[in-house]
Amino acid sequence: MKIQPTLKYTNSDEWVAVEGKTATLGVSDYAQDQLSDVVFVEVSANVGDIIKKNSAVATVESVKAASDVISPVSGKVIAVNEVLSTTPEQVNSDPFGAAWLLKVELSDPAELDNLMDAEAYEKYCADRSH
Amino acid sequence: MTEPTIYELSSTGRVGVEYPLPDVPLTDFPVELLREDLPLPELSEVDVVRHFTHLSSLNYCIDTGLYPLGSCTMKYNPKINEETARLPGFAHTHPLQPAETVQVNLALMFELQEFLKEISGFAGVCLEPAAGAQGEMVGVMIIRAYHRSRGDSKRVKMLIPDSAHGTNPASSAMSGFEVVPVPSDASGNVDLAALKAICDDTVAGLMLTNPNTLGLFDENVLEVIKTVHAAGGLVYGDGANLNALLGIARPGDLGFDLMHFNLHKTFSTPHGGGGPGSGPVGVTKKLIDFLPTPVVAVIEEGSEELPPLYGFTTPKQTIGRVKSFYGQFGMIVRAFTYIRMQGPDGLKKVSQYAVLNANYLLSRLQGAYVLPYKRRCMHEFVLEGCWADAPEVHAMDVAKRLMDYKFHPPTNYFPLIVHEALMIEPTETESMQTLDLFADAMLKIAEEAHTHPELLKSAPHDTPISRLDEVKAAKDLVLCCWIPEDN
User: Fold this and answer.
1) Residue ranges of domains in chain B, CATH in brackets
2) Fewer Cβ close by (within 10 Å): the C or N end of chain B?
3) Are B350 and B146 in contact (CB under 8 A)?
4) Could you list the residue range(s) of the whole structural domain that residue A33 is in?
């Protein structure tokens, strides 16, 4: 399992990359591995939407299950990854890169403080595996 | 082995029936009605009969073997159900006939409502919903109507345990509720502390399956229900797992406010491709007025000489009609037959044997498979289909390998809270010999997972079609019965 050292993570397996006031969201390598082959991705948030922390912003569906992607941050959506609707398999092949889901202009950067760093997330994943 | 399609069997000019020469002048078929793009197959009668009879012999069904799909209660469907449903008095009636001319049909529906009330401990039952998911949605709509009728408009949340069937959040979301997940605790029960933290005056209700999809009876069910009631919410029972409780515990007595029944699970009417399903809803007294319309009632009491007059009634604050006519009448006849054939003692035995069979299988399989919640189960149980020392093997591979041993696989990857879940429900209708054959196969597969994992990864080997490409099946849908040539 891969962990990107510079990212922050949620306990529902989303990752957040922060650059200034912009946060990019995606799902982790652990999440895509658990889901197995992803066959459908829908980002339900649109550019310009104001989203609240803990709201569902996307759905990722695999041959096993459909999962909501929950935003750990609040703010204004400034970009969504349109490509994933035609190439959902990128969630499996490049979860931390090409398969970013959306970018948010943070309204409350302090929300980031509740997230795990890479080290804590690695331990969190290891505890859940056998 | 490749099965030819009916199109591949076609032979130009071949026909099934020879018509006699016409006794009127022949005329050419109108050219504008001829279609070049409609390649209808041309076959003889015997070609067609052999093709479809052969395909049907490749099918796996409850009449050919064990069908251990967890939470689906794939019990044997007694053939006497088919006899009664085909009695001309039932089979030849029409739903538009005046009620006075179908009194026996109505009497049977009324009696089934009464049986379901007695079995569940509820005060009112409507037989109309078409299947389990619609029964659920009706339940959620009744909850909404109840709060609205009291002017209580701030109740927007529906609480759903994380072990729930996916239809629970779907029914809630479709009815406009905000879905709030409730975690399970380490024993597989609803996490009481988490529930208490969520419960406030914005909660419309909780949708609870008991026993839950882990096959576990919630040990705190009374406290769970009390907590939701104290916050002013209602508790909905998902009746999918009622097969564990018949004659033993009644949801109405436990404090549930309403629930649906799956006649096609608990009461042995055909399931899956043999359906349709049927999902009656039962409610406590305070919700009777909200039931869908119509409900069968006695319009005029009978006397010693005259039977009662039955008719359809509309509850005062009904949520409305949810299906055309009166529900799945053919299924209502079958479920009535099943209940009458079993009787009260028989129904209790159904649940006792369902629980015994599941525990027998569990005791044979635990050890070889990881049991995540180490408790005695009810009518089903959930194992992990993976091993730390066989990292490449997944639940899907175990399921596919079972097909080589001539068994239908159990439910996979559900509930979501179990890693690589295999959810097994044998039902009461399986003999000990069948259970042993299934357990032997499962134990052999657990051994193969360690010694010959490739056997699992490439399974099934002995089926007409080998492993399907599920990613392609989910992504590249071709929704027509032949592939256009220019594709």
Assistant:
1) 79-341 (3.40.640.10), 348-473 (3.90.1150.10)
2) C
3) no
4) 12-125
Dihedral sign of CA atoms B149, B151, B152, B157 in order: positive
Chain A environment of B386 (Cβ under 8 Å): 130
How far is it, in rounded angstroms, from Cα B127 to Cα B336? 12
Report CB contact under 8 Å: B471, A130.
no
Q: Tens digit of pLDDT for each residue in B443-454?
A: 999 999 999 999
Which of B269, B211, B268, B259 lies closest to B238, judged by CA? B259
How far is residue B297's CA from residue B313's CA, in Å, rounded to a whole number? Answer: 6
- Comparing CB atoms, the residue among B386, B412, B475 nearest residue A39 is B475
The whole-angstrom separation of Cα B345 and Cα B99 is 33
Distance CA A119, CA B66 (A): 47
Set of chain B residues whose Cβ sits within 8 Å of the Cβ of A11 = none
Q: Does A40 touch chain B (CB under 8 A)?
A: yes
pTM of the full structure: 0.90
CA distance B40 to B46: 17
| Paired tokens of B402 | 């079972």
Q: Which residues pair with B125 in a beta bridge?
A: B282
Nearest CA among B104, B143, B109, B140 for reference residue B126: B109
Q: Quick one: angle between helices B432-451 and B329-365, nearest 10?
A: 50
- The residue in chain A having the minimum alpha-carbon distance to the alpha carbon of residue B470 is A63
This model of the complex carries an ipTM of 0.79
For B22-62, how does the pLDDT look when each residue is reduced to its tens digit (9 = 90+)?
A: 999 999 999 998 888 888 899 999 999 999 999 999 989 99
Classify residue A127 by burial, with Cβ atoms within 10 Å: 0-12, 13-18, 19+: exposed
